[in-house]
Specification:
The protein has 649 residues and is mostly helical. The protein has three domains: 22-201, no CATH class; 207-408 and 441-570, no CATH class; 571-649. The protein has 29 helices and no strands.
Length: 649
């Protein structure tokens, strides 16, 4: 939280000031500067908002329209208090008059709806001119908060769809008629701003964001890095393996690619460079591993909560099905950094540099909040909101045993404020994503897109998957994962379902490819953040990160073509079989991309290894057998050449 706490990692001797890196690549970090009494007041408003969300989520039984409009009113109010109109140097304790006007008008628009929710619902679609004006003001104010906290690309996407609706998408002959219908549908209806994304955000995501803020203050991130160092730091290329393991564990807590990259990368990237990794590779390893945090159970990214609602299954169901793909993703990165270390002859950390394991094992009580959360969510004994609330209490209790990171009443207030600020970006993105999805539904554009791609793909599912992948990656380059998933869930996921892909596999597919956009050039924010810390070439880092995260580009095809990986209509034996073949396949593809197995691979071996790996990943007895033969051929040649080289010495 940029203006409410000091960044402890800034004390680490990193190549670039970490706060500058966050401000450059993470719009959430570009906040107003409040000091003294104004800072106290803003902190109080943020903390009260968190308490309000916890109360409404756990105890209140408000009318849905009242609950959602009040929630969005808070988001608009806080959005203008926290985020300035543009990036750059900010004046201390300064807020321009036009921001005050926008804040009051936008907040007032949603509060008007909240206070008149019952009468507005009863009046149907006949709105007076001033109600239309209120709807337009409220929508514009929320969109502006999203632009400030998320960025311009998602606003451009939303704007294009609105223009389409006003010009060709609606059959109403008059402009006023179209405007009336759009405002009724998107602002006052339940298919636009107040649709599934903002509903799920206000019910589930907010409590987990607050939980993450409390868990962060227990010092668990530092524990993850230390325990990873103790376990794998001494092996060949140890710091890179530490980055993979630590980022996988941090992913259980946070779903932000850039924040994970900067947080753990401030420690791991300098260590990787000192060990001998090239700057681009060091930054790419951290970025690719940190991006995987959004697919790592139990918390994953905010989009996972939306997926549960869209597909209509419990969140615990999503968590369980995500385990195997996440393991394969991180295994692929781990294999790649291992092969790179062997190829370059890199050592691990010395015994003196490694932390002692026994004292760290005594700190495993820090994992108790996560363990209890997983248990409660997995057994469905409590709703996920209650599970997260209980985990928050456990995190506070656990911190009492750690003198360095004890959560005092002051830190509780700071954590609540940090949670309140963390909600602004997610909620604003969800609101604008609701506008986009609502416009697509309102104009019938979804059916046009579905019919067009189905006709183009014919009966070839692989073509539909490829086209969907391109849509997700292109959109994800400028749209946050949460908003990307909402749009793809409304457009591309139904296409895959129409083609015969199970619904949950189709939604996992678009979810994955929305995430890897953070690594894919030309807009690869996580990779660029890592490159800034490593003082590396940003584009080379992004390309290397894409290569390291090859599993994220392959695994979704596996579970889309063979849902056994997601435990859909399968047996234990089939799951074991597809896990083994996919793991061997990812190993072979990683070796081909690295150009190294037991020693350097000539071009023909790299081709054979890549083809064999892809055949193993593609489900089917014939392809698995052929893939094993191809990979075995390369392995045998590599072993024989290594023996000959040893004999010549």
């Amino acid at each position: 939280m940029a203006f409410l706490k000091k960044n402890k990692t800034a004390e680490i001797n990193a190549p670039m000031d970490l706060e500058s890196v966050m401000k450059k690549f993470d719009r959430e970090s570009n906040t107003r500067i409040w000091e003294g009494t104004p800072r106290i007041l803003v902190t109080c408003v943020l903390a009260v908002f968190s308490l309000f969300c916890i109360y409404v989520t756990l105890f209140a039984s408000w009318l849905e329209e009242l609950r959602l409009t009040t929630f969005v009113a808070f988001i608009v109010l806080l959005g203008y208090l926290v985020y300035p109109a543009r990036k750059g140097v900010q004046k201390v304790n300064f807020m321009p008059w036009y921001d005050v006007v926008l804040m009051l008008c936008g907040t007032g628009a949603f509060l008007y709806y909240a206070m008149n929710a019952v009468s507005i619902i009863q009046q149907g679609s006949n709105f007076l001119w001033y109600q239309i004006a209120i709807g337009i003001v409220g929508t514009i104010s929320l969109v502006e908060v999203c632009r400030r906290s998320v960025g311009l690309p998602i606003i451009i996407v939303a704007g294009c769809f609105i223009v389409y609706a006003l010009t060709a998408g609606l059959s109403n002959p008059t402009l006023w008629g179209k405007l009336n219908y759009i405002v009724h549908y998107l602002f006052y209806g339940k298919e636009g701003i107040l649709s599934t994304p903002i509903n799920v955000c206000s019910k589930f995501i907010v409590v987990f964001i607050i939980f993450g803020a409390f868990l962060e203050r227990t010092g668990i991130a530092d524990f993850f890095i230390k325990i990873s160092n103790a376990v794998v730091g001494g092996f060949s290329g140890g710091p890179a393996k530490v980055a993979v393991v630590a980022s996988a564990m941090e992913g259980m807590v946070s779903g932000s690619s850039v924040a994970n990259t900067v947080g753990s990368g401030s420690v791991t990237i300098p260590l990787m460079k000192r060990t001998g990794y090239k700057p681009e590779f060091a930054a790419a390893a951290e970025a690719s591993a940190s991006t995987g945090g959004q697919i790592m159970p139990p918390i994953m990214g905010a989009a996972a909560f939306l997926m549960a609602d869209y597909v209509g299954v419990p969140y615990s169901n999503i968590v369980v099905r995500a385990i195997l793909p996440a393991v394969l993703y991180f295994a692929g990165i781990f294999i790649a950094v291992h092969l790179e270390a062997k190829k370059e002859g890199l050592r691990g950390l010395t015994k003196e540099e490694l932390p002692r394991l026994l004292p760290l094992l005594k700190q495993t009580y820090l994992l108790l909040p996560l363990i209890i959360l997983i248990y409660l969510v997995g057994t469905s004994q409590r709703s996920i909101q209650y599970a997260a609330a209980i985990a928050i209490v456990v995190a506070i209790v656990v911190s009492l045993f750690n003198k360095e990171n004890r959560i005092t009443p002051k830190k509780i207030w700071e954590a609540l404020a940090a949670g309140g600020q963390g909600m602004i970006t997610v909620a604003a993105a969800c609101g604008v994503a609701g506008i986009i999805a609502g416009t697509i539904t309102m104009t019938g554009l979804a059916n046009v897109m579905i019919n067009g791609i189905v006709a183009l793909a014919g009966s070839q599912v692989i073509i539909a998957l490829f086209l969907t992948m391109l849509c997700c990656i292109v959109l994800g380059m400028g749209v946050p994962t949460t908003a990307n998933y909402c749009i793809m869930a409304a457009t591309c996921a139904p296409i895959l379902v129409r083609m015969g892909v199970p619904a949950i596999a189709a939604h996992f597919f678009v979810f994955y490819f929305g995430i890897v956009a953070d690594l894919t050039p030309p807009v690869a924010l996580a990779a660029y953040a890592g490159a800034a810390i490593a003082q590396a070439n940003p584009m080379k880092t992004a390309v290397t990160a894409t290569k390291l995260a090859i599993g994220a580009f392959i695994v979704p095809y596996v579970f889309a073509l063979n849902p056994a990986m997601l435990f859909i209509d399968t047996s234990a034996w089939e799951v074991i079989q597809i896990s083994i073949t996919s793991l061997v396949g990812i190993f072979a593809v990683s070796a081909a991309l690295e150009g190294y197995l037991f020693h350097h691979m000539p071009w023909y071996q790299r081709i054979v290894s890549a083809v064999g790996g892809l055949m193993l990943i593609y489900p089917g007895a014939v392809t698995d057998t052929a893939g094993l033969l191809f990979v075995a051929f390369v392995v045998i040649i590599q072993i024989l050449v290594r023996k000959n080289n040893k004999a010549d010495i």
